[in-house]
Write a structure and sequence with these properties.
It contains 2 helices and no strands. By secondary structure, it is mainly alpha-helical. The chain has one domain. The two termini are 41 Å apart.
Length: 92
């Protein structure tokens, strides 16, 4: 879970860079030559899609990890409760 949080914070830091690239790409799209405009628009669209896909996957992974942690805590609590009952029933 720690690695996922590190990855998420790293991606959030790179979010500012992504916004700068998006801004520069938009500028070039409007003020560049036609051939450059098509290339920049396609690359920018591809980069945006990959970025969104990466963020979505990280969110899904974080949800799965949170669910696994809750389940592990539930199993631990159940195990502790059952072993405590067994110890109380068999004091010797």
């Amino acid at each position: 879970m720690c690695n996922e949080q590190v990855l998420r914070s790293d991606i959030e830091r790179h979010s500012l860079e992504m916004k700068k690239v998006d801004h520069t790409g938009t500028y070039l799209k409007y003020f560049g030559s036609k051939q450059d405009t098509v290339y920049v628009r396609n690359r920018l669209s591809s980069t945006r899609l990959r970025w969104k896909r990466l963020l979505r996957r990280i969110d899904e992974t974080n949800r799965r990890l949170d669910r696994a942690l809750r389940d592990a805590k539930r199993v631990d609590t159940s195990y502790y409760t059952h072993t405590h009952c067994i110890v109380e029933l068999n004091p010797g």
